Amino acid sequence: MRIILHIWRQKHRDAPGKMVRYEVEDVNPHMSFLEMLDVLNERLIERGDEPVVFDHDCREGICGSCGFVINGIPHGPLRGTTVCQLHMRHFKDGDELYLEPWRARAFPVIRDLMVDRSAFDRIIAAGGFISVPTGSAPDGNAIPIPKEVAELAMDAAACIGCGACVAACPNASAMLFTGAKISHLGLLPQGQPEREQRAIAMVAQMQAEGFGACTNVAECEAVCPKNIKIENIARMFRDFITASWTRRPPVERLGGAG
Amino acid sequence: MGTVDLDPKVPPGPLAEKWDHHRFSVKLVNPANRRRFTVIVVGSGLAGASAAATLGELGYRVELVTFHDSPRRAHSIAAQGGINAAKNYRNDGDSIQRLFYDTIKGGDYRSREANVYRLAQVSVEIIDQCVAQGVPFAREYGGLLDNRSFGGAQVSRTFYARGQTGQQLLLGAYQALARQITAGTVRLWNRTEMLDLVVHDGRAVGIIARDLVTGELRRFSGHAVVLATGGYGNVFFLSTNAKASNATAVWRAHRRGALFANPCFTQIHPTCIPASDEFQSKLTLMSESLRNDGRIWVPLKKGDKRPPNEIPEEERDYYLERRYPSYGNLAPRDISSRAAKMVCDEGRGVGETGYGVYLDFSEAIRRLGRRTIEERYGNLFEMYERITGEDPYTQPMRIYPATHYTMGGLWVDYRLMSTIPGLFVAGEANFSDHGANRLGASALMQGLADGYFILPYTVGDYLASTKLDRVRPDHPACREAEESVRRITARLLAIKGRRTVDTFHRELGKIMWEYCGMARNARGLEHALSKIPELRQQFWEDVRVPGENEEVNQSLEKAGRVADFLELAELMCLDALERDESCGGHFREEHQTEDGEAVRDDERFCHVAAWQYQGPDQRPIRHIEPLEFKYVIPTVRSYK
Amino acid sequence: MTQVREPGPVVPSAASSAPSGPGAPPAAARRPPVRPGPQRPAPLPIEFWRSALGKKWVMAVSGIVLLGFVLVHMIGNLKVYLGAEAINRYGEWLRELGEPALPRTAALWIVRAVLAGAFVAHVVAAAQLTALNRRARPVGYRSPRDYVAANFASRTMRWTGVIVALFVVFHLLDLTWGTANPKFVRGEVYDNMVASFRRVPVAIAYIAANVALAIHIFHGAWSLFQTLGWSNPRLNPARRWFAAGFAAVIGIGNISMPLLIVTRVVG
Q1: Model-level ipTM above the cut of 0.95
Q2: pTM (two decimals)
């Protein structure tokens, strides 16, 4: 197979970028998309050019490192699949593909197809956790959790943090990512004590990072490699609104020994 | 390189009380003083993230360094099957004692009793901790935790979260870490790769790391260093490890004096998707849990190219069930892997390449219904179909072994401290608990045990019991280490040869898979030992690393890692050659029974081999830590 | 080439100042850190409004109010088919609503105020969110965009919204204040409608605006459940039907009037 690629090349964060055309001959249909790029890179290096930079690691669709936009669709045309698990058998000989990085203010391009997604880490750091000091946990079976609830939490927790939802959203919104984490922890009994504070803090951080707002077009859900549902965004809204209207003002209570 | 002290420092007392004894004997750091100590943690997988989170929570200042863009990307995330714990929720005869025994036996009697017992003890707490963090483990309809039996265990002690247990446990640890980042106790340095260890006065006092975005070298100084940088399976090029998994951090620590233990102990995982072509960049593991319901077979006849569904029952060879009637398809990893290799070498392998065996679910689908199978393995089946384009519900999967885990690693004592005081090693990066072979669902357990429950005590003990002056980043030792890193980088960039890094890596991988893979022999290893230095020399003469240091340069990153693999590979072969016995994942063809079972040599090799670096192209020195078995009597490991 | 420095104190992403020295691309410096945590507290409504989620909620709630209005307004106007007397009496009833507890037209003005408030809130929130969303992607995609799930309605909310807003202004000028209707006579609802819709361009404008309104409702009436947090697989088909049905009823009902009047079937 022969594939024609137009790839976004940008040397560093503040450099101007442009689409550059490459042709890759002898593409084997069993190759994964990234293996095809590996081949391109090997050839680029051999002829003295700089290889295309892209994030990738596990190549099993779970680490969330990889991801770029292929012809306008994050992770490419196959649903429920990261680009590392996308195989060339889904393309035709002579296909012309446009590869671009995730584009969002909150995800600055580092180089070529590599973007900085640490905004996601900061959203999690704002409250995407359950405060449980090591060693203080009760027995694992102390709190039964209905199977259905555990499954729903797992559906949300399956998020790999790749950022495709942001890339796909016409508004570069991170609500699917944030909603999934708020849902995951908010569904479980262990997550209840911090549920409201978590929603408030994570939503605030999401906005501070410069992500857009949801317009419910559900594009995120469609491209999510882990099929995270926009139902999670609804749960985030629920938690956020309840928390906003019921939160008490902070009261300073003086501490002291005894 | 001073004298080598391989005292494991196992606490006195009966086995079951050693950890308690140790916890009581450690010196504690006054809470108010903890913030004066800086601990550098390298790696953000299960071990690194949990250690950093817990140390931060205790009040130490933690610098967490990871080459990933986020701590959540570490390769622990890819573990599918589950995590063991001796909870005995099933009432099926499990206990701490039994988990200990199974692990020792599974490791083919090449691990330290005290460490393994402690691992079994804290396994129980890990589950509690993870549940409290919000890890959505699978549950029964009654709301209690579900368990399954896994890879060679006869009790159901494995906890799981669909086929994404590693992901969920890592997210739990990552979230605990995120909490500490917000609390200000942990500082996160992402896209920052450790390239050297700073040793001063015989102690680990810092690291040198490269900012992978700007190329800037940073000197980190602290009072202790924790390496939790994972295993070195990528020395084989094709493995189930993530593409960036590497040995650079441990290898450079090794070059600074940390002994490397049992490098030849690598684990081959029996259930991976076979390689399809030359361009294959990595192998994908299918969870071993598949073996609970799938039956493994090959055609009885050589070269039988009929489609699997047309091969009648009586012309199939369910070789694991035949050879190991009591364990059958659940025989331990090394045994299953070798059995697969054996049938393929006989010419009975399946698939285009002939390197594959069938894993067949048709019987299970008939017995349990498609729905049940979908519930248990749905996402794994989907993944298989995505990669191969074949539907495992209607035709058997093809699987083949692949390198998966490395039991070897930096030598550590009971406190997880290496031979360099102040340098702790956790998770897959150390050699400790799995002996010559790791049981399924035990890697997650060990990573979290080390990070959550062991290091917080032992690091504190080191900090409290040692008079430490903080070495500033402009100390000559730091500057010397930085210089040395800069020299390596400059040298790699200056070669400007003809071959790409990957071509060297592939070539090395082929040598290693051929001669130091599933089965090894003296001749092959000697051959490899002559080939690897040649390849290394070629590498340093002819590698082409485009670009510069002061930018994102993935070729440069790879080059540094492959350079280290080229040295480590030689040590692995050397260790494999010296260990003139078969045990666990290390199978020497010279030492097998008539029907191909491994033959251990407890007289000569009931020990840990720890190698001391002697300089470039110098033969390292092999040291020995004898292993004593007081509670479990080594027997021939039989899964018949 | 590199600086001697202690690790930079940044939370949570590792950031550093730009490396100095020759060869170092200053541009590759990492972005400054954002410290997580709650922002400066403000009074509840302000804080709520500041959040994009709060604005979305305001849009959903004001959307419900406007949907209710649109429905009642349509039902009232459909009396045009019952003849001049029926609709004129309805118009009069609106002014008398609430009597004798309230003075004449008081209730009407209260309703108008609520509607105006909802309308303004809806538009302002939409405008601010649009601005936020534009800022969120300063550099767009170069390649043509393939939408996977987004439908026409959801992608064109801003345009249909603007069309409807402009139409509302015209509609008020036309049939409430009469400025845009030379034959306007206060209180003569039936005659005013007929006079206005007999003008072909006006009828076309009314029809076009109501098509836009129906499209807007098709997404809005579905979307508001999501924003209010009511989304689950059992409810969702009903949401879709509700939105489609609502849009169809409003669209058909509202379009029928100018259409039947301009074609002289009615009036």
Answers
A1: yes
A2: 0.94
